[in-house]
Amino acid sequence: MKILCSILGLLCVGALPSFAHADDLLPASTPINEAIDHYIRKAWADEKIQPAARITDANLIRRLTLDLAGRVPGMHETKQYVASKSPRKWTDLVDRLLASPDFVYHHSNQLDEMLLPGDYNGGGDWQEYLRAAAKENRSWDKLFREMMLGVENDDAQKTALSFVRLRGKSLDDLTNDTSVVFFGVNIGCAKCHDHPLVGDWLQDHYFGMASFFNRTYMTKKNTVAEKYDGLVKFKTTSGEEKQAAFMFLTGTTIKEPAVEKTAEQKKAEAAEVQKQMKDAKAPPAKTPGFSPRTKLVELALKAGEDQFFARNIANRIWSRFMGHGLVHPLDQLHSENPASHPELLDWLRRDLAAHNYDLKRLIRGIVLSEAYARSSEWTQKIEKPAPEHFAVATTRALTPKQYGLSMVVSTSNPDDFDKKLQAENWADERKNLENAANSLASLIEYPGEYFQIGVDEALLISNSDRIQNNYLRDSRDRLLGYIKTLKTPKEKIDAAFWAVYSRGPESEEAAAFEQYLSKRDENDDNWKQILWALIAGPELRFNY
Amino acid sequence: MRNNFCGSPEHGVSRRGFLGTAAAAGAATLGADMTALDALKSPAMAGELKRKQKNVILLWLAGGASQLETWDPKPGRPTGGPFAKIQTSAPGVEISEMLPKMSKMMGNTAIIRSLNTRVGDHGGGAALMETGRAREQGVQHPDIGAICARELGRADSQVPDYVSMYTSTEGRRKGTSGYLGSRFAPMFLAESMIPQNIRRLETITDVDHKDRAALRDLLAKRFTRSRTSSTVGSHTSAYQRVRGLMASEKLFDIEQEPAKVREMYGPRQFAEQCLIARRLVEAGTPFVKVARAWWDSHGQNFETHQELCADLDHAMSTLLTDLKDRGLLETTLVITLAEFGRTPNINPSLGRDHFANAWSMSLSGCGIKGGTFYGKTDPDGQTVVDGETKSGDVFATIFRALGIDHEKEYHIGARPIPIVDFGCKAIEEVLA
Asked: Which residues of chain B neighbour A203 with C-beta distances below 8 Å?
């Protein structure tokens, strides 16, 4: 019966994914981490899954620091955390990291990669804009508004418009990227035909969404402007010509108010657009009375229509920390691809919308959940549960920036790093680190879905002189220099592991290293090789 | 069951075909199905494969070579230009007198004269001809080199499986492995004739280099013991290939060739790169791209082609001869291709502009019926009148020639993507 209902429900709702009812959800006052654990645990019980063990403290601070600060923790940072007896240490660490300049850099880098991925380059102003937004924890709906509707004569808003500007020459890019990034829906398929298996997506939706961008154009000055008229026509697969409505993904349409225009008015408007397109000295473009792009933003954020907007960002943030979306892939938010934990996604959506789309608050809730703190090691005899159960943590490849930063931090003199971290000007130091990380980061590929590490990277780490002469440099400010100041091989091996892997060596590892040393003449280069073996290992390459 | 792919009947994907492939591949996604390749590690299978190892050398004529000065001359017509055509060693096949050496050895080469690919800008044209399909929102398609690397290469290969070189900076396009991932990305020769980071630094001895790698492997083993994923696995296999690839450095060193062979190829860079390409395929590299630039002759088309055609004619004929002498031509497909051709109309600067509506390419060697041509343009070369060929048809033909299943599909998640674009088919007439 339940199944029948849900099928019927689906048919009736049509374009809307089915939603849980608000009164079925946990109370809105439940702390986020508790709500997460409630739903995740319930599903484990239903599926009879015994989740992986809780991670160690050393593992937790590494995971948290990578996720919130974009880098591995320094050696002393890790050791202090592990040694602390405070019952609040997890929460305190999360709050310290969220308040740090590290978070501003890392969060804005992540937003940048989501908004302008791949070859798009927003430039320094764009990154500055995102950092400012991350610093003041500007709400996601406000960012969305700024990015879609910023005005050109305001510096910050002009920069925000880069999302549109860089895609301004392609209606398809604007239409699909906006749908993917802000609504979690890849409707590219529906351009040529109604989606064969997803009842939600019709050509009407694709061209409906395209209608909102159809009048957007780039002026000769490379500013974003909108035309006064223009409708999208398309051919259905049966060859019928159709005129698209201004239709949002929910199926809701907007009517353009009928305005009587004289032939002269129309001519003047067309001339104005022509001038904007051809003349770099034209005065700023005027805003037409009816702006489809504005209508899209208004509609997408309207109560009742905002499920896509809210679910998408909740799902994307979840996936960033948990390694897998509640809806996965992230751009397939539709009724044929239900969430693994529909009630949880609904609860998070409701919570986010009720709290002004405060992403930092959501992030804090996720990383304080028990679900977040599962080990990535699967040691049970039975097969590892699929990722959508979140029963065992995903081993995630670092982003190029995370890897670059982690390489710099882990090979720095741990005392020096700790001093910098404690100093008042840590924000400046963090900025320097960001720049230092780029030399490696620029050579590493961004990990997408099905990411595979190529041999180019292995060759780079193995044979590039930047690894040898920079990270493994025998100088006081480097880890190698620090290790030389220590006395016994045991102390040295210990420090090497704590600095690079944020943990002490296992006995088998220590034994192997001692054996390695015993076979060789005493030589400073031995320690260089040992450090290389550590930094080239997968343990530094992944957030596990 | 979750369905989230676009398997439209209009796009010609049979539902049964999809299910069949999906079932065969199991839950394996692109990255994960290295397991299939791993089966080849068994010596018997590997030997079988080696015997059948197929290779590709792509001579990319960057900027767009003129079909009228190469494979489809129209002398005596208003569009023909000053050069004559010559009868080749293949009866009935005539090419431009700009390619005299090639004219004597067309027995292994088929010309396609009927490309109509429509895209006439450098970036768009190159992307179309490299990937065999129009750019698609949200999907990064792999290029021909990455597909061949994946289909013809071996998981544990000790040589690079996709190498990309170029002469003169305009030809610099690295190529992309798209959704196939960086495992199949080209090894790109950017700053020198030797790939980056393939050589051990002088500051470390070979023994130290080897020993520290063993130490690294030990750490990696512990880490990966209870953490299995295709991404983690790719890290392991990337490092496993390092020492083997370093040993392949000598393949890039043409000094190792006998003086006679060096002389045959001569001192020009394009020919020398063709020699490197030959050394690579001989050692088992499945795909090598050598880009020769810059054919973009908007002005002085004929002078430009005099120089570049001479270079192409010499390098290509030498390469084909060398491959044949070594018994490698049967298993090596040599392609000339570009982003587009050039306009039949000659502009006031005596140049020819971008033209994608009726242009030519060539296929030689492996799987190709030589001494033929396919397709026809009108007397002035303005339009295709017979055998219109799209970029996807070219890809289907190439795959068929190499014995790659051209109806195969890759999967991004659950979405099937055929390796040859919808509605495209191989040109049987040029296949052996």
From this structure: none
Q: Are B406 and B419 in contact (CB under 8 A)?
A: yes
Residue with tokens 């079909």: B67
Residues B12-39 pLDDT 10s: 333 333 333 333 333 233 333 333 344 3
CATH of the domain at B107: 3.40.720.10
Interface of A with B in 84-123 (CB under 8 A): 118
Tell me which residue in A188, A377, A452 faces B31 most closely, judged by beta carbons: A452
Over residues B348-357, mean pLDDT: 96
- A-interface mutation test, from B192, B197, B207, most A Cβ less than 10 A away: B197
Question: Does the CB of B183 have a partner CB in chain A at under 8 Å?
Answer: yes
Q: What is the pLDDT of residues B71-85, one digit of tens each?
A: 999 999 999 999 999
For the entire predicted model, the pTM comes to 0.84
pLDDT band at A195 (very low <50, low <70, confident <90, very high): low
The answer to whether residue A523 neighbours chain B at the CB level (below 8 Å) is: no
Interface-testing mutation among B235, B417, B421, with chain A (most A C-beta atoms within 10 A): B235
Q: Can you tell me whether residue B163 is helix, strand or coil?
A: strand
CB contact under 8 A, B216 and A537: yes
A148: buried, middle or exposed (CB in 10 Å: 19+, 13-18, 0-12)? buried
Residue A35 has pLDDT above 80, yes or no: yes
Shared domain check, B235 and B217 = yes
Other beta carbons less than 10 A from residue A21's beta carbon = 8
Residues B316 and B245 occupy one common structural domain: no
CB contact (8 A) between residue B3 and residue A451:
no
Put simply, whether B7 touches A (Cβ < 8 Å) is yes
Beta-carbon separation of B137 and A529 below 8 A: no
Question: Tens digits of per-residue pLDDT, B159-190?
Answer: 999 999 988 777 778 788 888 887 888 988 87
Domain match, B235 and B368 both: no
Distance of CA B422 to the CA centre of its chain: 20
* Residue A141 near residue A309, CB atoms below 8 Å: yes
B189 and B208 share one domain? no
Residue in A172, A444, A462, A516 to test binding to B, most B beta-carbons within 10 Å: A462
Q: Do A455 and B213 touch (CB under 8 A)?
A: no
Distance CA B93, CA B106 (A): 8
> Nearest CA to A503 among A75, A55, A63?
A75
Test the B interface: residue of A456, A526, A529 with most B CBs within 10 Å: A456
A&B contacts, CB < 8 Å: 200
* Burial of residue A386 (number of CB atoms within 10 Å: 0-12, 13-18, 19+): middle
Out of B10, B29, B227, name the one closest to residue A544 (CB).
B227
Q: Do residues B319 and B395 both lie within one domain? A: yes
Tens digits of per-residue pLDDT, A360-413? 999 999 999 999 999 999 999 999 999 999 999 999 999 999 999 999 999 999
What is the number of structural domains in chain B? Answer: 2
CA B327 to chain A, closest CA, distance in angstroms equals 30
Q: Are B163 and B311 in a shared domain?
A: yes
Q: Which domain holds residue B241?
A: 195-252
**Domain residue spans of chain A:** 396-543
pLDDT digit string, tens, across residues A226-278: 999 999 998 887 888 989 999 999 999 999 999 899 999 999 999 999 999 99
* pLDDT at B69 > cutoff 70: yes
**Does residue B317 fall inside a structural domain?**
yes
Provide the pairing of β-strand B287-292 with B162-167. Answer: parallel
A513, B229: Cβ pair inside 8 Å? no
**B422 at the A interface (CB within 8 A)?**
no
A523 falls in which pLDDT band (50, 70, 90)? confident
Q: What number of CA atoms fall less than 13 Å from residue B376's CA on the CB side? A: 5
Instruction: Please check whether residues B275 and B160 belong to one and the same domain.
Output: yes
Q: Are residues B155 and B243 in the same domain?
A: no
Helix axes A75-83, A489-501, angle to 10 degrees: 90
